[in-house]
Every structure is written in C-alpha cells, then in structure tokens.
Amino acid sequence: MANAAVKAKPEVAAAEAQQDLTDGFHLVIDALKLNGINTIYGVPGIPITDLGRFAQAQGMRVISFRHEQHAGNAAAIAGFLTKKPGICLTVSAPGFLNGLTALANATTNCFPMILISGSSEREIVDLQQGDYEEMDQLAIAKPLCKAAFRVLHAQDIGIGVARAIRAAVSGRPGGVYLDLPAKLFSQVMDANAGAKSLVKVIDAAPAQIPAPEAVKRALDVLKSAKRPLIILGKGAAYAQADDAIRTLVERSGIPFLPMSMAKGLLPDTHPQCAGAARSLVLKDSDVVLLIGARLNWLLSHGKGKTWGDAPRKFIQVDIEPREMDSNVEIAAPVVGDIGSCVSALLAAMGNNWRAPPADWINTVKTKREENIAKMAPRLMKNTAPMDFHGALGALRTVVRERPDAILVNEGANTLDLARGVIDMYQPRKRLDVGTWGIMGIGMGFSIAAAIETGKPVLAVVGDSAFGFSGMEVETVCRYNLPVCVVVFNNSGIYRGTDVNPTGGADPATTVFVRDARYDRMMEAFGGVGVHATTPDELKRAVDAAMDSGKPTLINAVIDPAAGSESGRIGNLNPQSVIRKK
Description:
The protein has 581 residues and is an alpha/beta fold. It is built from 23 helices and 19 strands.
C-alpha cells in the first residue's frame, strides 16, 4: 500500500499543478462573468467552438444561432434592453463578416454590443501567406464601430475585455470589435496571475451633467414658445429615465411625439401624445425639444416641406456634442446623459411652469381625434383576404390587452403601418428596424427579447423581411422560447401582383411563391403553425400562442394587391423617367 501511495504522488502533483493553471479560453469567460455578462449569442466553429462549450460549462447561457448576423442582432438589442453590452461570438473571416452588419447597425443605432471573433494568426495574415480564413479583421472592423481591439497575450485578456465594455457603453453607446486570434485561446498562464489580470469595470458609463447655463438657455427658449413640441427618441428609451421623462412631459403640458422605439415611454393613449397628429405638429410647431432623438432622415433632417415654412427653434438633449447642428442650427444644445439632463430641466422648471397656449393644445387634440376617427373603420374590417389595416387592427387589440408583451416589427408596409396603428403602453416594448431601416432583425431581436426579459414576444413581420432571418425559427424552437411570429404574407416585396414586363416565364422581381405556407416551417421544427385568413382568425391564433408560450408562427394571408411601393418612404426609391419601348 505504501508503494502504491508513493507511485500515486507524481500523478497527484501533476493534477495539482494543472489546477494552478488557466488558459485563454477560461480567462475570456472569467473576464465577462466578472463584469456581469452571463449570456453569449453566436455561431460555433473554428476557432471558438470550445469557448462556447466552456462558457456553458461555467454557467453562462450560450445561445447558438444558424447565422451570425442574427446572433449579432440579438446581441445588439440585448444591449439596448439591458444597458450592458450584448456579446456576439463568431468564427473568423466569413463568420466575422456576417456579424459585421449587425455590429455596424448597432453602432448606427447606439446599441452597446461587442462582437468577439476568432481570427487567423498575425504573422501569417500580415505576410498574406494564405492561412485558413485569412483576413485582417481588425482593419475591416475599425471604420464600422466605436472601437476595435486585438488581444495577443493571455495576460492582456482582462484589459482587452474591460476596454471593450467601457467603449461600448460610455458616452453615446455603440458597437465594439474584439479580435481574438486562435493561438490566444490555448495560451497557458498561472491561475492566480490570470485572476489578478482581470479587470472589473467601475462606473463604465458615468453621468455627464449638463452645464447650468445650457439648462437655463433651453428653458428660456421653451418659455418663448407658442406652439411647442417634445420629440422622444429611442435614446430616451435606452436611458431608462422613464419617471423623470414622464414628469417633464406632464409638468410642461407640451404635446409629445414618440419616435417608433420610444413609443410607450408614455402610453400612446396619453392625452398629450401627438402621434396621431404627427404631420400637423411637425409642420406647425415653433419650438421643438428633442430628447434622445436625432434630426436624421426619419425626421426629414429638420427641414423641408415636412416642417413647413414657419421659423422654429430646436432644443436638443444628447450625450454627443457633435450631434448638435448636424442638420440645422440648434438654438439650445443640452449636452449630457439624458437622465441627468431631464432631471436638471425639471429642477430648473420648478412646479409653476406655464402650460402652452390653449389654442395650440386644442388644435392638436382636434386633429388627433379626427385622424383616429378616420382610421377606426379601416381597423375593424374582417375580410378575407385581409388588408394590412384589418390585420393590424386585430393585433392592436392583442397588444392593448397584453401591454407587457414585447412587439418586434419589421417589413415595408408591415412596419410603416404598424407604427401608427399599434399603440404601446410601456417603455422598451417596441423593437424595430431603427435608424437604418434594415431588414432581417426580426428573429434575432425576438430571441434576445425573450431571453433577456422573460416576457412573451410578438413578432409582426412582412414576408420579405421574414425571408432574411426565417431559418432562426429553428433556434426559437430549440430553446423553446415564448415567441409568436406573425408573417404578413402578401406574396411579394411591397405586394404580390407585379408582372414580368417581358411576358417571359420568370416571375417579376418583387414577386414570391403564391400561397406560400410559412406556418409549416415552424411545424417542421416542432413548433405550432397556424394559417389565418381573417382578422378574427388572426386574433384567436395570437391569443392562443401568447397564452401557451409555445413557439408559434402564424401565416397571415394578406391580399396580394395590398401594399404600396416601399411603404411610406417611396419617395426614397428613385423612379426612372425613361421608358423604353
């Protein structure tokens, strides 16, 4: 027995020595967990397959997608919902490029996200010697994100992750790229030294207090208004300063217009909401207070016929000083984080703020009620096949009855009409295509919304938009997520009635297979598929799906003739003035 014990000692010593070591795989995982990041979205493969396996073994939730772009979209919207950077993990070169679209979109929309990609070895890439999936990924990523870093040594992983986190969430949030070459993962170092090399990020997004004179200037301009308007953007929703924003709006008495992802900060049914009188308030307002909203194309750059001819002044609250005067002169810039700025405005306003002139309030109210009354009959139509308004009217009722559910929305007509039809009642419950208007976010956003919030998700998507990410319904089923997908199927892009001008056998460029059954895709993966042809059938199917919490796809049959070119932004689609015979 003694000899046996002696023989075992070298093996025990070796095991103990092994326990005192760590490697790049585990240091990446430990660095993320130290900073409260416990979910990874990605696609496994060389060289990051084991990183996902080890992360899952260490208690992280690893959600594997079918395509990196959708994993990236999931990470981006996770960042928006949680204010912590969402993590997307991809393989090198092609996988990295697939994730890059989501990274660029996150940066444009100010969503905090970190794209972590494995990569080929520097010494081979730099000499262009033809390595497996060889690409200088760092150089490609840099123009499309807030910051990009490469880690070459295991002892620098902690610093690399910390820098990526801070860059993603500080100031104006956005996307960050973190390049991890394959050799990094297998690098070994002393476990104690490795633990000491990790960094817990402190005060990653510190408050940025506005200057007192900026606050005074803004209120002086607002006091001078005869027809004031407040516009709330998705930056206001991201800030999670919901109570302060609501108090500011209600204390001021000013009509407010929510941009699409800011809907629900105050309910769309709030008496001050001017969503149903959008054209009027944009055209006739004389002072506009922007809170977390940018004067980009979605607001016609603050000029042109949308805004009318009357002179107006803009007050803008934004954390990025370079945003000021981007399109038009900003009379009163208020630079700082939205929570601090709104709190400062409230403190300076006091409790005796003078309400806007009654004639302006009554004009907005009258127009809002008039437009709501005009729309009501269209939303009650119960025809087969459905048109967009009848179908959206049914879903409008679903959301009113389930205000805690999250609505994901994409498409052309499906998106544009839903913005105005479906009222929202709580903040951060509407997720859509954002600043770029990019299609294909539907399934990634839906999956992340279900994972991050635990709430039921209703995804309302056009058949064209669904085609970009439809395979991810398998991911929805694999993780058994409470996601109900409604595909508005009008058999084409914009509509399904276009014809080939040559009369040839090929279909028109905008036409899909007629009478396609998208519901059977969900059934193929074990979910529930439903074919709905009327608004009543659609309402019953959605209610059943939301009650059950089962992965469901409803094929909502829309009249192929319904829909207009490019939805409501057809003016952005140039038309040729030349017609060849």
